[in-house]
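Appendix B, record 7
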Amino acid sequence: MVISSLPRPLNGTNVVTASELVRHFGIWQDRATREPVYVLHRGRPRLVLTSVEIMQALCAPHDGEPEAGANAGVETLLDVTRDIILLIDHDMKLIAASRAARGYFGERAQPGAPLVGLAASVAMLLLNEAAQRVMASGLVETAEYAAPFAGRTLSVTIHPCDTGAILLVHDVTVIDSLAAARAHAVAETEAMIATGMMAHVRLSLRGFLEAPVVALAVLVGVEPQVLADARFTTLFEPAGRATVDAAIEAAIDQQMSRIADAMLLVAGARPRPVRLGLSPIRRGSIVEAIAVAVVVR
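Structure tokens (predicted):
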């Protein structure tokens, strides 16, 4: 099996500059346990931070005749991505499926199962024909098909490879729904910030501010660049910093929302009493950062 035929999984969540990696290594270390993280050098990927399991799969010997479980390395690689990926052979049967694919299609997404058997629908027959065309022509093809679930649509990109074809599947309906929910959340946050009485920021797990910090800079009375990579607790009177620190740690350790009252330091003016609302930003069971609402009391 030629693993190099797999498409390079670069996306907006697994690419980092070397300087950002050094500043927030804890965050990127956690992310690398779920998918490879590409480290940029002069704007281009140069190094990869990944887990021991993935390296073992990559370095496992592949000489000789295939044995039972010979696809374990590929399955390990597929399982580190959040995408729905199917690998099929020239007989139109599954070689491997990512964890997301198994979760989406259920028990039918097992090695050896026919591609058309993933769902009892005309769409699977059309997808099967498309995969055959791609393997015959060697050309990538993308099309939309009805999902196994009512009212949903799948966008499938089929790539030819030595073993057969790779199918990258996206639930377009989910993507559209998430985009709408994100747009609503952004508008809601901006409306609250427009009052001039609150700010919304994101903290790293080490308690440092992450962009954007414009609204907070307005409350503090400084230019946004002054707050770049600043430790959040330094923005408050010394007497209240321990309370803020404790709230941050509790939000991370207990993975629950917390509140704290403190006095926000203001350039050229008296400190302002504020209430902080802190909530962990989770991806699965992993806390990646902390969302904080700063509200003037």
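Remarks on this record: Residues 1-9, 64-68 have pLDDT under 50 and may be disordered. The chain is about 35% helix and 30% strand.
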